[in-house]
Records
---
Amino acid sequence: MMKLHYSPTSPYARKVLVLLHETGQTDSVELAFATGTPIDPQSMPVAANPLGKLPALERPEGCALYDSRVITRYLASLAPATAPALYPDSPRVWEILTLEATADGILDAALLMRYEVVTRPEDKRSAEWVEGQWAKIARSLDTLEARWMGHLEGPLCMGQIAVGCALGYLDFRFADRPWRTGRPALAGWEARFVQRASMQATLPA
C-alpha cells in the first residue's frame, strides 16, 4: 500500500486528499501524520523527501514522489475509468496545469507569510516582505476573477481543486484579510465548491 505523509493543515496535502476522495482511491493510501517547519523538521519525511516538505508519497515500488503536482498527476493516472478526468488530454490540460500553478503560487506566497510570523523573532520580521507576498496573492486572485471563472465553472479538474484548497488556506490562516472583497464571482464559486463532500472531508483543523 502507498503511504502519504501529510498534515491536516497543509493545503498542498489537502489537494492530494481531495483527489483521493474524488477518484475513489482513499482506501489505497495509508496516511502518515507529519509536522515541522523549514528550521525545525520534527517528523517531516526527510527520508522520503530530502526537501522535508509535505506531501510525500511512498510507493511499494519505485521512488517516493514529492511536490503535490507530481503526486496528483500520478494518482490521477491510477484513477478508475469511472472517475472524473482531472487532467484531461491536450489542449485543455495546459489550462488546467496553469490554473493549478496559479493556485500553488498563491499557497507559496501564503506559506512565506506564515513562516515570517511563526519562525522569525518579532524584531526580525519584515512587514514589507509580508505585504509583498500578499500583493502576489491579490494579483492572482484578481486574475482568477477576471480571466478564469469560465474554467472554474466547467467540469471538475485539478485546477479547480487546487484553487479551492488555496482559498481555503487563506480563510484558515489569514481570515483577517478579506480576499472576497471585490471578487464576487470567485467568492460565489468558492462558496459552492467548498460544499463538495471531498472538500468538507478535508477541512484544515
---
Amino acid sequence: MPTMKPALFLGLLGLATLGYGQNLLLNPGFEAVPDNSQGQGYLPNDWITISSSPDTYTNDGSYGLAPTAFGNFTGITAHSGNAWVAGWSAGPEAFGQTLAAPLTGNQTYTLSGWLHQAVRGDLDNPGGYQISLLNSSDSSFVVLTNLGDTVSVAQGWRFYSSTFVAPSNTANFDTVVFSPTTAGGGSYPGIDDVSLTPVPEPASIGAITIGLAVLARRRRK
C-alpha cells in the first residue's frame, strides 16, 4: 500500500488540529439537562444565562417547560430530540456558553441553527438572534453576526446560517452569547441544533483536495 507523503499528512493533521468542521459548542442540541427541574428560567448543561431568564422546552415537559406552557409553542416539538431553547426579545432573555478556547482572530467561522417562531399571538412575530462575544471579566462585548429572522409558523423549523470573520482581539473574549432580536413586535424564537465551526481557507482546501486526488490515483495504480 502506498504511504502518504509527509506534506500531505501534515496538511491533513493541520486541518484536524485547527478543528475545521468541528462544532465548538457543547450540547448543541440542548439534550443533556442537569435534572428534572420544571418551570421558567432553566437551561441545559453547558449553557448559561446572560440576562433575564431564557427557557428550555421539552417535548414531554420533563425539563423546563412543556410546549403548551402559556401557549408559547403548542403543537410544536423539537427540531430533533426532545429539547430546544427560546429567549424573549423584550427581556432580552440572552443565553450563551463559555468557550473551551477563544476563537482565533481573523479566522472565518460559520454559525448555524434551526429557528421556530412562537405560536402565541403576541409572540408570533419574526425574530432571530444576535451573536456576540463577551468578556466576562469586564462585560465588554463585540457583535459577530445575526441568525434569523424567523418566518411564519407555517414554515416550521427553518435552517439559518451565517459566516463571519472573528475580530483580531478575540483572545479577550471567553463567552459566545445569543441575544434574541425582533423585526417588529415582541418575538420569542425557539432555537435548536446550533453549530459554530471554523471554515478552512480556500488555499488549504485546494492543497488538501489535490493531495487526496494524487493519493487516490496512486492507490488505483
---
Amino acid sequence: MINIGVIGCGYWGPNLIRNFNSLAESRVKKICDVDSGRLSHIQQLYRGVETTTDFNDIINDKEITAVVIALPVHLHFKMAMQSLQAGKHTFIEKPMASSAEECRQLIAVAEKNKLTLMVGHTFIYCAAVRKIKSIIDSGELGELLYICSRRLNMGLYQKDINVAWDLAPHDISIILYLLNEMPLAVNCQGQSHISQYREDVTNMTVYLSNNKVAIIHSSWLDPVKTRHMTFVGTKKMLVYDDLEPIETIKIYDKRVEKPPHYDTFAEFHYAYHHGDMYSPRIESTEPLKQECGHFISCIKTGAKPYSSGTEGLKVVEVLEAADKSLKAEGMRVKI
C-alpha cells in the first residue's frame, strides 16, 4: 500500500484525493491546505484521512511514500523540491513549474534520488486522445497539415499566471504526445481585458516539422465552454470534441486534391473530395483515474511515466517562448 500526501485541496485537489483513494494500491493518508474550512469538508468526505495546515507534517511523515501537489504554479517548484529532497515520489499538477530552469532542477534531483517525478497532463491518459494517436500513427489521416485547438471558458481567472499558462498546457501536452516531436518555434498574441497584468485571451501558433502548425486559442472570457480540436490531413480530417458525450471523435473523409502541374491558369483547378463521416467507439474511462493509477504503477515498477518531468519541461519551454513572443508583440520565437 502506497501512502499519499496531498498538498492543496482547493479546486482540483479533491479530484486527486478521490481517485487515489479509489485505487486498491494507494490511500491518501494526509492532506494539507491553509484553509481549515476546506480541510474539515474533505475530512467529512473521507473519514480517517489526517489533515494539517503545515506542509512539513507531510514531508516529515515517514509513512508517506509519495506527495501530490495541487497548488498555484508559483508554489510548485518550492514544494516539489522539498518533497524530492525528502525522498518522496512526486506528482505535480500542470504546468510543472514557473520556468524551464526550475523544471530541470527538479528532474535532476528526482534522477539523483531515483524517484518518480510525474506531471498532471491528464489528457494524454484520455481514451479519446489515445485513439487519435492510433489513428494518426496508422496513416489514416495521411500527412498531417495542421491542428487547430480551442479551449475557452468564462473563467476561472488565475492570480499568478495568464490564460496561456493555465489552459494551453492541455493542448500542448496533447500535441507533443500525438506527434512525438518538439516544436521548433512559437508566436503568441494576447490581450488583458479584466486584469491589467494577466492576458485572459491568447492565440498561439506552434511551428512543427514539415511545415505543420498548431493554432491554440485560449480564453477565460468566452460565454460558451469549448474543448475542441481539429486535425487536418492530406487524406482525411478529424474533429475531437471533449464535451461531446457520445461522438467524441468524428472522422471526415474530406480533402482538397491538388491537380498535376499545368502551364496555363485556365486549366488549373482544385478537386474537393467529400466522403462519409464516422465516429469510432471510445472506451468510457476517467482519465484522471488512469493518470493516478499510472503514477502508482511507475512508483512500484520504476518505469518512466508517460507525463514525466521531461515531458513537463517541454511544455514549459513552449510556454516560456510564448511569453517572450507576447512581450515582443507576437514575434516568432525559437524554442
